[in-house]
Every structure is written in C-alpha cells, then in structure tokens.
Amino acid sequence: MNTVRSLFVFLAFSACISACKQDDPPLPDNLVQFDASEQGFESDKTETEVKLTLTRSAETATAITIDLAPSGIAYGTQFTTDPAATNNSLTVTIPAGSSTGSFKVIKAANLFLSGTEAINFTIKSAASPVLVGTKTTAALKFSSIVSTGSQLKLNGGEGGSSAVNSVFVDFSNNAQTSVARNSWDLGFYGGADFRVIINGTTGASAKELTKTDLSQVTAADTVGLRNILILSQGTGSFDNVDDVEGDLTKTVIKTISATDAENKVYIINPGTSGTAAKAWYKVRVVRKGTGYTLQYAQIAETTFKTLDVTKDANLNFSYVSFEKGLTEVEPAKTNWDIEWTLATYKAALSATASVPYTYADFVFINHLGGVEAAEVLTSTVTYDAYVEANITTTTFKKERNVIGSNWRTSAGPNGVAAGVKSDRFYVIKDAVGNVYKLKFLNYTSSDGGVRGYPNIEFKLVKKV
Question: Is the peptide bond before 454 cis (omega within 30 degrees of 0)?
Fold first, then answer.
C-alpha cells in the first residue's frame, strides 16, 4: 500500500513539475541596439568605436548587419571601418556569452575636415534569436558634440559583484570606455608633481623598504607582510594603500625625489586578477628629466627590468602593467566624467576603527580633470523637475567620492534587498562647465538589472 501511495505521489509531483515548467514565463526578447544614438569624433583622434548592446548575453555567436550612410566623407579614401564594409554595409559578430559588440571607424592619415561630416548607421538585421531593438540608428559626427542626454548600459563585464572592467563615462559625448581592471599595476601622474599610484581597483597594496637596490631585495623581505599587504576582512592598513579619498599628496609611494638616493624600493602586492592572486613585485621609481624611470621585478628575481615613462599632460596618469609594459587605461582627462568600478575604500570595524576594503559598484568623479558633482535628494527636488534654475542652489563638491556607493543599497538583514536608491540623484558639472543630471536605473537582479551591467540615465541641464 505504501508503495502504491509513494508511486502516486511521485507521479503527481512529476506532473506538477511538468506543468510548472510549461507555465514558466518565457525569457523576454533579446534585443540589439546602439549604445548611444549620437556621438562625436574629435579632431585629435584617429579612430573611434561605435558600440552595440544586447538585452542579455548572446547564447551563440550572433551576426548583426549594419548599413552606413556617409555625408560629406567618402568610404575607402577618407575613412574605413573594422570590420570592413562592402556596399555600405558591415557585419559585427557578438561572441557567445557576451552582451556587447562594436566596430571601429578609422580616419585616413593627414585628413582635414570641416566638422560638418557625419556617418549615419542603421541596424539592418540580427541573426535569430536576437531581434532588433528600438535604438536602431546612430549618428557619428566628425566633431565634438554636447549630448542632450541618453541612457547607457555600462559594460562592467562578467563577474557580477567582481565585474572585470572599470567603465569611464563621458556624458557630453554619449560615450563609455571599458577597461579590464587588472590591465594595469602603476599609474604615473601627468601633472606638475611626481606621483605614482597603485591599482586600487584590484585591491593592490605596497610597503616601503629602507633599501634602494632591487637586487638586494629577496623573498626574505616579505616575511610578516601577509596580513599587512593582503586586503581582506579585518586585515590591511591605510598606511599601505593610496588615500581612499583620492588625495595625491597621500599616495603610499612617496613623491618621487629628484635625489635618486631618496627613492626607496617598494614591495607591491598587485591584488587579484579575477579570483587569482597576482605575483608580488619589487619596484623602484626615479626621475628621468621631466618623466620617470621604473625599475621592477618579481620578488625572487635577481635581475630587474627598466621602463621609461613620459609625462603626458593630456592624461591624469600614464599606466604600466608589470606583464605588458606601457598600456592605455583611462581616456584623456577631458574625455571622461565618472568611473564605475570596484574600488579600495574603507569599512568600519567599530565606531572608531576602520580598514581598507574593496567595494563593488563604486563611482568616482574625474576630480583631477576638473569635474564636480552634487548629490540631490528628491525630497528637495525631483529628478524630472531639476532644471537650470536649480543649479544656483546646488552645492558642488570636488571630492572624487561624492557619489561613491551612496547611490545604491546592498542586500542586508531583515529582508533588505539590494537596489538603486530612488530618493536621490546626482548633478555633474564637467570640466568645461556643462551640467548634467544623472540617475541610476538598476544594477542587480533585485531591481531589474544585471550585476556588472548597471543602467544609467543622464540629461543635459545647462550647456556652456
């Protein structure tokens, strides 16, 4: 009897599972569209990228066909594309597992333009099961633009709360630039001072030694440094990371002195690459004319490499990877306003003590490039109601952490769900004085987003 009853229950359960599966709602359509409907192509650039986004990651490699209509400029003689176009049509393949794609527009050498030239792009078709979305056209103008606003899905990449990319956003140009967080280890300041930063987006840390000769530094010099140079729950020290507020006078690597003997060796823990810890390095930086010379090697190596780094006044920092040498990271300092990333900040151990801590979904402003920002509560004025007249009563700040993690909540006890805070938005004044209002739309599954791909909206409030 028990066997019969058990069989009946199993069959009923199976029938329920089958029915429930049939009743599960289908996934929404996966749509492809342009990242932005308009972007500029500044005269000092030789190439630019036009980006495409999917609603979610492609299940298989997906071909997207795009038509182009040049105006005042000719394909093949004045510009080309990568991939190449045939009969004013090109195909971009979005890889399986990716939700973004792009193609490049490349100017011919020694090209002089009036600034009125443009290319209009139209998404013609997408391979099944992807469908064409609503933002099907995009205009690339061969001049600087001041965007009136847009919505962007930031390409933080895979990894969820440990998303692999930092994303730089330029509001006036409707542009975002994604760079792998682990693609660099040191940043060399391009301003008047001689400063070097470590990579706070990977949880890097550093320790100054008394030695000035890399060949005299061995694994023995790392004894006792594990709890100091590994940032984790309750470990690490603010003495071994760059100032979390972004003060360049408080970098862990001291000002590079014009007197070589004053420039000590540092042991660098570069942090993590994905989930894997990176090899520790010993480094020393000295001045070379108006630039820098980096000496570096892994801890156990008996010889070291040298690399000259020239200051570039167009950049906040010039970047170096221990593995690849000089590398490009952030855009020119006039070409970005905010950076969304994982960042080393601080967490409280008690009411009076805190430690360095790596925060996901952290937002910096380009404070070194002259950007300012303000947080505005909707109890004062709503996002939609905020207009140019409100600017005079808005208190802008120059601190890079004005936004920080204040725009979101994390999942917590008593059923607190992660999500965007709807009681606030931000006002950004870019380096030339254009003012934008910014709100975050979603960033995690609890608020309708995907972790690592936050959606934002920004609108022009005042144009210079």
Answer: no
